[in-house]
Amino acid sequence: MAPAEARARRTDVLVAVLTAVVAIGLQLGLPPLDRADPDGTGMRYPDVVSVSWTVLALGMTVQSAALLAARRAPRVTLLVTAVLPIAVVLVAPSTLFGLTMLPVVVAVVLAGLRVPLPRLWPALVVAAVPIVVAQTVYAFAVLGAGRSSVSLGLTTGVGQGVLQAVGVIGLPLLVVLVVRSRREVRAARTAEASAVDRQQDAQVDAAIARERAAMARELHDIAAHHLSGIAVMSAAIDRQIDTDPERAREGVRQVRAQSTEVLDDLRRLVGLLRDDAPAERLVETVPGIVDLVERAGQRGAVVLEVRRRAESADAPPLGQGVGPLAQLAAYRTVQEALANAAMHAPGAPCTVTIDDHAEPRLTISVRNGAPTTPPPARSTAGGNGLRGMRERADLVGAHLRAEPTDDGGWLVVLDLDRETR
Length: 421
Prior knowledge:
alpha+beta, rod-shaped, 5 strands, five-stranded mixed β-sheet
């Protein structure tokens, strides 16, 4: 037997035993209490262990035993406990007959807690009938309701039976309604708390997913930019090592410089992820694109064109009015476009244009021509660079256009709106 089932069984036994103990305890205690009260009712109670007393005790014991089935068959249990008082009052009527209603009250409560009220109403109405019948028989047999007039006795007995049915069934139902309402409120609060927990978990998962995507984009931008340059320079070194050793040595120095840069960038990225020490991070901005293009020009033909609103000494810096996150997106877009050009179009001329003369927006474009040498062997996996550029553009509300050109090259254009004051 499962632990939960065993606990439920012990609860059923406890309820049945307590009901029997209370009923028989009242059967034993009421007569002495009534006799001890000077203003008592003076009713004649059956002697202990007399026939009527014993029949009443047995009847209430059987009613209490029937409560053991209340969990499996609550409506049947209710009907059984309501019908048994008729047998008791017919066999041995006594002044303590009202105690037989105690197990009925318990059966009503158990049934109300375990069966939805719309489905329980028929059983409650049917159970009220034997209660009315038993009370009517009790009124004739014990109270002498039919001595003067049978019709008056029936009226009195039925009236008392209806009142007793209302008390035995209606009052416990009020208790059941209160208990069920508290259960429903508690269940609603638990469901609400669970929903809040699930919502918080979903928000945490979404935040983690966004952070993972951001870290993936950052790692891809760093690695793709530097490693693509290393791959291109390594291919050139392989061709020059026998024919032009001096240029091959210069290429090795450039590979070393690129390797140092990628290690520094990766250290900064790892530092951002650690929480045991402050991390240093360079802020990539639109003016930083100038240095980026200069470094890229060391390994290929890369030209920078800058169109400014003014060429004076007090001219505003490049990208003025563009937010820091948008400037980072611009820097990473150019970095990724140059890495793609070096990887997919080695030897092709590349032009980076920063159009900063228009007031409402800043436009940055990267155009490369068709490759002049076969690209180095690469993995079949791809597409993350363009996807990362689009995600960054969407994040800052920019417009990105990436498409092939008529001469076999590639064009990437990023439009950034300036912040209005």
